[in-house]
Design brief:
Layout (H helix, E strand, L loop, with lengths): L20 E4 L12 E4 L4 E8 L3 E9 L7 H23 L3 E7 L19 H6 L10 E2 L1
Parallel strand pairs: 4-5, 5-6
Antiparallel strand pairs: 1-2, 3-4
């Protein structure tokens, strides 16, 4: 993922964020969930900041979220992971940085369908693309 910025040195060492998020079953779209709530952090991720001439400061977040997008308990934990990533992205945007989230999101996207026209059972893509009030985040997700 850092090959995207080959030739640009990060302005500080790569780092990670240990925050966690809780998703309540009643708020999730993941299906029949036996627990009242689920908590997760993002175990596989890094954050890198760059200062690129003519573009300004950019934060690159590389992440690998839980697999198996249609398994309900993993689905809701992936929503918690996406919430953590959204919080990180919002903090970076509040500091005036542009944000790019790259990696293996392990979920389907409502806006960009795969070859089988799969639709997500979770809110992961919406959590990453929109802030808590439904406004577009202006975060680039790939």
């Amino acid at each position: 993922m850092l090959a995207l910025f080959r030739g640009f040195d990060p302005i500080n060492a790569l780092f990670r964020d240990e925050q966690r998020a809780t998703i309540y079953s009643v708020d999730s779209t993941c299906g029949n969930l036996p627990e009242e709530s689920y908590e997760s952090g993002v175990s596989k991720h890094f954050i890198a900041r760059f200062n690129i001439v003519n573009l300004g400061q950019i934060t690159l977040i590389g992440a690998h979220l839980l697999a198996f997008p249609t398994t309900p308990d993993r689905c809701v934990r992936r929503e918690a992971q996406a919430t953590v990533l959204r919080n990180i992205a919002q903090n970076e945007r509040n500091l005036g940085r542009q944000v790019v989230i790259l990696g293996d999101i392990n979920d389907y996207d409502r806006d960009v369908l795969d070859a089988s026209d799969s639709v997500p059972t979770s809110r992961v893509s919406n959590l990453l693309k929109y802030d808590g009030s439904g406004r577009k985040n202006n975060v680039f997700c790939y």
